[in-house]
Design goal:
- It is built from 13 helices and 15 strands.
- The protein is α/β, with parallel strands linked by helices.
- It has a single domain, classed as Aldolase class I (TIM Barrel).
- Helix 6 runs parallel beside helix 8 and helix 8 runs parallel beside helix 9.
């Protein structure tokens, strides 16, 4: 891939009609590269952000325990915009040690409501593209197929330095890192890759780190690492050591086996400080005719937005219950389907120490302002 995206990379083929009428800061009708260079598509007016008392987030002072997970913040311009909009926990999109191009456009689509409930119950049930968009933005669900693209380290490190400089008091920068698997990469090299990334991210100014153990549309070794408790533990301990003991989060997908869930929690306990739950669940996404929406080889993609909230909330409750029962030194951050202020409050009421929103924050960039006005204590 080129070192920098093409500023003129423009129209995404096969786009849904009127998608930009509903999309907000991310242009669904443009490529990922266009959004990286030109976005976010936010032109104000800038809202007045309510003043809120300081809270603690893994020992760091924050104005709110609300923010954005590794998702829509691929560079300093995106992060600075959302920081100015009052989001206080800001996660830089997952980065690699090597450059990785984004999958071809389209990358982000809206999904049909009627097909979502069966698919959330049964991972083998497909989800269908939306024919028209008629609901409020907070009720939309989307499918994303990006493949965790990344710039070269010299680029994202410079961008992270700008991100750190753009933060106001009471805001924190989390760097999300992901190792790159390949047939010729041993487990030891894979672990070392994560550790090296963690050290670089701290050098670039991140307050804390997130290890991305899950991605719904990359290779199995990267996308389902959370299903290997032993390797997850090795990665967490290596990153913790390489980062000088900075707060460490692990991002997980859905875990259906309670025995594995407990094994994972016990395995990472003492290295990780918290879990971000959940990443977008992987589903097969099709068009109205039943054809693969993103094309051959990209049959499955991540589902984000309103429909995944029950699944994410259930995972948070299960994690909190296991942590409390076994007295583990871990906290849980809620993520998934948070599209309105009440959603964030539900996750915190369920035991999460904080709440993060990606699709909701993209569709409603004033979400943090609304939450602070309604719940200044969160």
């Amino acid at each position: 891939m080129s070192v920098l995206p093409d500023r003129n990379a423009s129209v995404a083929p096969g786009m849904q009609p009127d998608v930009q009428a509903t999309g907000k800061t991310y242009r669904f009708d443009r490529s990922y590269e266009w959004n990286y260079v030109n976005g976010p598509d936010y032109h104000g007016p800038w809202p007045a952000v309510p003043d809120t008392p300081m809270k603690s987030f893994f020992g760091l002072p924050v104005r709110s325990r609300f923010g954005i997970p590794a998702s829509i913040l691929p560079n300093s311009r995106w992060l600075e915009t959302y920081a100015r909009l009052g989001f206080d926990i800001l996660t830089y999109k997952s980065v690699r040690r090597v450059a990785r191009a984004c999958m071809p456009a389209p990358n982000w689509v809206f999904l049909e409501e009627a097909s979502l409930a069966p698919s959330m119950r049964d991972p083998d049930q497909p989800v269908v593209l939306a024919g028209e968009l008629y609901r409020a933005p907070s009720m939309h669900t989307t499918g994303g197929s990006f493949g965790m693209p990344s710039m070269l380290p010299e680029i994202w490190m410079a961008e992270m330095e700008k991100c750190r400089a753009a933060l106001a008091p009471g805001q924190v920068l989390i760097a999300s890192v992901v190792g790159t698997a390949a047939a010729d990469v041993s487990e030891a090299q894979f672990v070392a890759d994560f550790a090296d990334l963690g050290a670089r991210a701290i050098e670039a100014g991140a307050h804390m780190l997130e290890v991305n153990l899950s991605c719904p549309n990359v290779g199995k070794a990267e996308g389902t690492l959370y299903l290997d408790a032993d390797l997850s533990s090795r990665v967490a301990r290596a990153v913790k050591k390489a980062s000088g003991g900075r707060p460490l989060l692990l991002k997980s997908g859905v875990i259906r086996d309670p025995l594995h869930f407990l094994k994972l929690l016990k395995g990472v306990s003492g290295a990780a400080d918290g879990l971000v739950m959940i990443n977008a669940p992987s589903r097969r996404i099709v068009d109205a005719a039943g054809a693969e929406a993103f094309g051959a080889g990209r049959e499955r993609a991540g589902v984000t937005g309103a429909a995944i909230k029950p699944l994410a909330l259930d995972m948070v409750k299960q994690a909190v219950a296991l942590i409390d029962l076994h007295k583990l030194p871990l906290q849980v951050i809620g993520c998934g389907g948070i599209t309105a202020p009440g959603d964030a409050r539900q996750f915190v009421a369920a035991g999460a120490c904080a709440a993060l929103s990606a699709t909701g924050a993209m569709l409603n960039p004033h979400l943090a302002v609304e939450l602070k006005a309604l719940a200044p204590d969160l």
